Amino acid sequence: MLDKVEVSANKNQSILGDSALRTMVISNKEIEMSHAKTLDEALRYTPGIEIKPLGGSAENGSGISIQGLDPSQVLVMVDGNPVAPNSGDMVDAVDISQILIGNVESIEIVQGGASAIYGAGAMGGVVNIITKTPSNQFSFSTDISSGNWGVKSNEQATAKKSASFSAAGKVGKLSTLITTSLLNQDGFDSDPNAIGTDGWHGYKNNFSGKLEYNFNEANKLIISPNIYRSETATHTESKAINEITKERISTQSRNTLGMTYFGLFDSFHYKLHIMDQSLTEEKDSTSSDRLDQTSKNKTYNIKLDQPLQGHFISLNINHKYEYLNQYNLTEEEYVIQGKTKKSTDIALSDSLYFYSDGDFEMVPAIRFNQDENYGSHVSPMLSILYSNEHWLNGKINIRSSVTDGYKTPTLMELYWEFDHNGDIMYFGNPDLVPETSLNTQLGFEFISQDHSRLEFHIFNNEIKNLIEQQSNADLAEELEGVNTAYIFENVKKARTRGANISYQKTFNNLALNIGYSYLDAINLQTRQRLQYKSKDLLHLGLDIFSSNNTNLSLKYRFNSKQFTDVENTAFIGNYDVVDVKLNQTINKNTDWYLGIDNIFDNTPDQYSTTGGHETSGNDAYAKTPKYMYVGIKLKI
Asked: Of the candidates 599, 608, 604, 600, which has an alpha carbon nearest to the alpha carbon of residue 618?
C-alpha cells in the first residue's frame, strides 16, 4: 500500500494521488523490503516499468523503458537534477545498475511524456531519486550482505558482496550526510560448456555526500558531491580471434558536483543550481582495441516559483553543455575529438486549482528549447486532474494529459564508432534529426476507505523520427572483414500505445499488489513490432506480516516474447521470475534478511520465427541464475 507521500510531479510539492501528472512513489520502506542495492533492482517490481538491457546487450548495463519508449527517452534525476547518460557500446542512456541507492529516501516515477516541464530527455517519462535529508542528531547505519549463484558461481561461496555505510549529523547550521556503497562480485556462468561467461566480475563503488547549510528558514545551500568508480570484466567469446575467450574490461570514473541554493526574495521562491559532471571510461572491444572515452556535462539552472491564490507559477531556465572525446589507445588515434553540444531551455508552467463539489487541478506548461545544431522548438503540455473524496465511499481521481515530446540526437548517436566483435561494428549518424512525439493519456484511480487502490490508465504515443539502432548491409559491404554494421537511423513514424492496470489491497497481515501492462509498439513504415518490447508484463506481489516483527515477500514477474531485430525474424521467448524475500527485526538497532532471486532458475532463450531454437546468441538479457543471499542492517 502506498501512503501519502510528498512528490514533485509538476516541480512543486503535492500529495501522491493529488498530482495532475500520473506519479508513482517507491518509499524507503519498500526499497528496504526488496533488498535493492541498485536502482534497477528497486524498479524491477514496478507496474508499467520494464528494465531493459542497454545497447541490446546485458553486458552494457540496464536502462528504464516506460510506455514502450527506450531508456534514452526516459530522464533520470537525483533530487530534481538530471543524471548524465553513459556513452559506450551504442549506449546513450543512464545505466541504472551503476546507481547505488544506499542514501535514497524515495523514488518518484512520472509515466508518460513530460518534456514541457522536465526538458528534452523526458519523452517517455521521469525517474527522480530523492536522497535522504541529513538528520539533526548524529546517526550511523550499515547494511552488509553476501550470497552466490550456487554451482554456477565463478569463484567462491561469497560470489557477490555488498556493503553500505551512512553517517549523519549536525553542527550549528550545517547538516551533513555521508554515504559509501560498495558492490563486488565474482560473476556467474549459466552454461559451463559454453565459451565465455554471463555475469560480470569486478567492483562498483560509490561515495556521496550531502552538506546542507541553513542560513534561516527560507534560505539554504546544499552541496552534493558524488564519486563513482567501477572496474568490471566479462569473459567474452570472440569470433574474430578463433573463438578464444577474451577478458573484456571496462573501467569507469564518474565525478559529480552539484550546488543548489534555495531562497526567498519578497514572495518569490527561487532555486539556483549548478552541476558539473564528468565520465571517463576505458573499455576493450572484443577484438583487440582498447578505447578511452571522456564525456562531460555542465548544467546551469535557475528556477522561480510564485504561489498565488489558486495558482502555482514556475519559471525554469536551464543551460546545458555536453562534450565527448574518444581515443583509441591501441592505435593511438582519435575516433571522436572534442565534439560539443549546447542547448538552452526556458519552461513556464502553472498549476491552477478550482474548488467545487470535486476539486480540479489544471497544469498548462510550455517549454522553449534552443539547440545550437537544431534550432528552436516549442513543447506545450496540458494536464487536468479531477478529484472527488466522496465518490462511492472512497476517493476518485481522473487524470488526462496531452504532451508534446522532443529530443535532439545525442553526441554518441551522432558520432560514435565502435568495433564490438571484430566482424561487428557500430556507428553514429551525423544526419540524424530530432525525435518528436505526441503523448495522450487518460487515467482512473479509486482509493477506498480501507485504503485499497485500483488504477487504470491508457496511453498513446505518436512518434516521428524515432532514433533506432538498425543493421545496414550496404555499410557492412563497404568495410573489409565486417559482416554486420549497425547505425543509428530515424524511423519516420512509430507508435506505442497500451494500458496499465494495478490493484493494491492491505488486509490484517497481508498486502497484495497486482500490476498488468499491455503494449502495442509498431514501426508504422514497415508495420513490424519495435525491437526489445514485450507486449505483456505482469507483476504480482504478496507481503505476509507476522507478530514477531517478521515479513515474507513473494514477487513474480512475467515478460512476454519480444523481437530482437527490425525484421521480426528472431525473438526472445516468454519468461518469468519468482523472488522470495524475508525480513526480521531483532531489536530497534538490528535487522537481518535473506532472499532467493529467481528461485526456479528460469532464464530467457532466443528463438527464430521458423521455430529453430538458438542455444546461444541471446546477449540481450543476462541468463541470471538463482541467487541466494543473507544480510544484516545495523543502526545507532
From this structure: 604
Q: Which of 247, 207, 209 is nearest to 230 (CA)?
A: 207
Q: What does residue 41 show for φ and ψ, rounded to 5 degrees?
A: -70, -35
41: DSSP letter: H
Residue 309 identity (one-letter amino acid): Q
Percent residues over pLDDT 90 in the chain: 39
The H or E element containing residue 633 is: strand 627-635
Residue 402, strand partner residues: 382, 440
- Could you say which DSSP state residue 410 is in? P
Output DSSP code: residue 467: E
Could you tell me the CA-to-CA distances from 327 to 70, 229, 309, 460 in Å, in that order?
28, 20, 56, 42
Give every CB contact of residue 323 below 8 A, 6+ residues apart in sequence. 294, 295, 296, 297, 338, 339, 340, 411
Backbone angles phi, psi at 31, to 5 degrees: -60, -45
**Structure confidence by residue, pLDDT tens digits, 219-253:** 999 999 999 999 988 765 544 444 445 567 888 89
Q: In this structure, how many other beta carbons lie within 10 angstroms of the beta carbon of residue 557?
A: 20
Strands 627-635 and 139-148: antiparallel
Q: Which amino acid is at 85?
A: P
The distance in angstroms from the start CA to the end CA of the chain is 28
Cα separation, 82 vs 404, whole angstroms: 20
Which grid coordinates belong to 46? Answer: 514496478
Alpha carbon distance 583, 545 (integer Å): 10
Helix, strand, coil percentages (3-state) for the chain, rounded to 5, are 5, 60, 30
Q: 398 near 391, Cβ under 8 Å?
A: no
Confidence of residue 617 (pLDDT cuts 50, 70, 90): very low
Kindly report the number of other CB atoms within 10 A of residue 261's CB atom.
Answer: 16
Give the DSSP per-residue string, 539-569. Answer: EEEEEEE-TTSEEEEEEEEEE--EESSTTS-
* Helix residue spans in 51-205 (DSSP H): 115-118
For residue 406, the number of C-alpha atoms closer than 13 Å in the C-beta half-sphere is: 23
Which one-letter amino acid corresponds to residue 526? T
Amino acid in the structure at residue 45? Y
Q: What is the pTM of this model?
A: 0.87
Q: Pull the grid cell for residue 451.
A: 485504503
Interatomic CA distance for residues 45 and 558, integer angstroms: 10
Can you give the C-alpha Rg of the chain in angstroms? 24
Closest CA to 261 of 273, 248, 275: 273
Q: What is the DSSP letter of 218?
A: S
Could you give phi then psi for residue 267, rounded to 5 degrees?
-105, 5
Question: Phi first, then psi: what are they for 68, rounded to 5°?
Answer: 80, 0
Between the alpha carbon of residue 234 and those of residues 198, 294, 330, 471, 601, the distances in Å are: 7, 22, 20, 25, 21
One-letter amino acid for residue 42 of the chain? A
C-alpha dist (Å) from residue 89 to 4, 54, 57, 419: 41, 9, 9, 9
pLDDT digits over 183-205, tens only?
998 878 776 666 556 678 889 99
- Exposed (0-12), middle (13-18) or buried (19+): which is 457, by Cβ within 10 Å? buried
β pairing state of 394-407 and 417-419: unpaired
Per-residue pLDDT of 438-486, as tens digits, reads 999 999 999 998 879 999 999 999 999 998 888 888 888 887 777 788 8
Asked whether the beta carbons of 549 and 590 are under 8 A apart, the reply is no
